[in-house]
Design the sequence.
């Protein structure tokens, strides 16, 4: 029979363990992410400050001959003005990594790494990709700045799994990525995707794909997203054109954070952007995303974005079409909408910008959804709630956002630069329009790093989290029972 002095601590220990495990399973154990910003409003104000500085600079130069000679820069868009005013940008490509703003500002991509030139548009082998292909480049372990030797369309056989510290830089060529699976960023960091057409992405999988020089893994069926961000951080997607995919154009889930989505052209799609795994996935409370200077255009229906949990800063975007709603959410996300232009559709029942998805007003009335400096046209209206109903936030802010009246100017170059901004030109083989060839001097374009793949690469071991809890339970029970045995022995003596 157990001694009462043994039973009490054992039960306490077991009860504590039970609470911890249940809390974890119910989503209350890890409410923060290691890389989320502790003061997200400060990040939003910094974005406003950067826009204000660029606009002021443009106004100061508006009467000078300098701005007339530099039509590609001084637009007031702080990202573009950061690199496009340099006429020799092609010789200093990695300067782009210093130009991000918002939550993804720290995304380095392949900065500091070698230049890798994609010369082969094929994608035949997902296990042993051919040197010279995009797939070979993105799986490498080292930082790489990836450019393209010419206009090309890359028709993917399966998901393109991108490793950390990569920049896919399509400037100087017109590059399309399409086909099966499209771009997957899973458990990675520091990735920049710039100036790429992404379109007609279809579900794929139930196959084996190499994710690094030493790791091959089985992949189940993907959703058909254009760009899928899964458990990743420090991601920047800029000046891309996205359309016609099976699922989302950009989806970020499973605790992804530190993301900026900027200067993109979204068109011809139903569910545009999903931010958050599900309403009960607590790590997504640390999701922080900046959505800035994008054009949401023809043929869009909803989810621009659709948010769960987290803090989403929607700033200076041009929403010219939606059929259901523009911004939706559930599970109490913070929506900070500033200086956007919302043009409502003609349908009288689709004028509202916002939608609380499957939630009664009694539950969403305290959600912090703000509108500040937004321009509403054609009957559009934004329904604020929580802190957004008061002037408290505006008074606390030291920086006024630029009005939505400037959105056309700030988004005038949204989408791909150097070819069609959107995906209105549907590719069959390669694009027929020309583009300036990228400057690849010193890039080692003939040296594909001579990497030999091991054909017997093993599958990735199980995630540590999958074995952590069973080991913890066993260890604690072992300690408890041995402690009780020692305590009983001491009492008997």
Sequence:
């Amino acid at each position: 029979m157990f001694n009462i002095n043994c039973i009490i601590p054992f039960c306490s220990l077991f009860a504590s363990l039970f609470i911890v495990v249940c809390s974890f399973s119910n989503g209350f154990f890890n409410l923060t992410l290691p890389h989320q910003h502790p003061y997200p409003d400060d990040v939003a104000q910094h974005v406003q400050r950067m826009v204000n500085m660029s606009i002021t600079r443009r106004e100061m130069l508006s009467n000078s001959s300098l701005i007339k000679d530099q039509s590609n820069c001084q637009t007031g868009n702080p990202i573009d003005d950061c690199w496009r005013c340099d006429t020799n940008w092609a010789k200093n490509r990695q300067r782009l990594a210093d130009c991000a703003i918002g939550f993804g500002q720290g995304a380095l991509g392949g900065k500091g790494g070698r230049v890798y030139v994609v010369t082969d548009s094929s994608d035949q082998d997902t296990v042993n990709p051919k040197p010279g292909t995009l797939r070979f480049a993105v799986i490498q372990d080292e930082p790489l700045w990836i450019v393209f030797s010419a206009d090309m369309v890359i028709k993917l056989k399966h998901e393109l799994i991108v490793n950390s510290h990569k920049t896919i830089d399509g400037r100087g060529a017109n590059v399309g990525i399409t086909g099966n699976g499209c771009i997957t960023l899973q458990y990675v960091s520091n990735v920049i995707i710039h100036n790429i057409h992404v379109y007609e992405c279809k579900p794929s999988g139930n196959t084996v794909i190499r994710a690094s020089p030493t790791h091959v893994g089985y992949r189940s069926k993907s959703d058909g997203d254009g760009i899928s961000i899964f458990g990743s951080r420090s991601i920047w997607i800029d000046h891309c054109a996205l359309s016609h995919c099976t699922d989302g154009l950009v989806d970020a889930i499973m605790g992804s954070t530190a993301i900026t989505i900027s200067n993109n052209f979204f068109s011809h799609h139903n569910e545009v952007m999903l931010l958050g795994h599900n309403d009960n996935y607590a790590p997504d409370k640390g999701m922080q995303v900046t959505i800035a200077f994008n054009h949401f255009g023809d043929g869009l229906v909803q989810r621009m974005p659709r948010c769960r949990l987290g803090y989403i800063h929607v700033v200076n975007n041009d929403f010219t079409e939606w059929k259901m709603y523009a911004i939706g959410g559930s599970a109490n996300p913070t929506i900070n909408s500033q200086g956007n232009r919302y043009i409502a559709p003609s349908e009288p029942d689709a004028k509202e910008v916002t939608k609380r998805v499957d939630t009664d007003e009694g539950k969403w009335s305290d959600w912090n959804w703000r509108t500040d400096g937004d321009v509403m046209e054609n009957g559009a209206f934004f329904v604020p709630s929580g802190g957004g109903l008061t002037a408290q936030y505006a008074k606390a802010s030291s920086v006024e956002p630029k009005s939505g009246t400037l959105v056309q100017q700030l988004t005038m170059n949204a989408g791909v630069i150097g070819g069609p901004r959107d995906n209105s030109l549907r590719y069959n083989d390669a694009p027929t329009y020309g583009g300036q060839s990228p400057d690849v001097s010193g890039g080692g374009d003939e040296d594909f790093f001579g990497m030999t793949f091991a054909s017997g690469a093993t599958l990735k071991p199980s995630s540590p989290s999958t074995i952590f809890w069973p080991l913890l339970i066993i260890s604690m029970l072992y300690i408890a029972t041995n402690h009780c045995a020692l305590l009983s022995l001491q009492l008997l003596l």
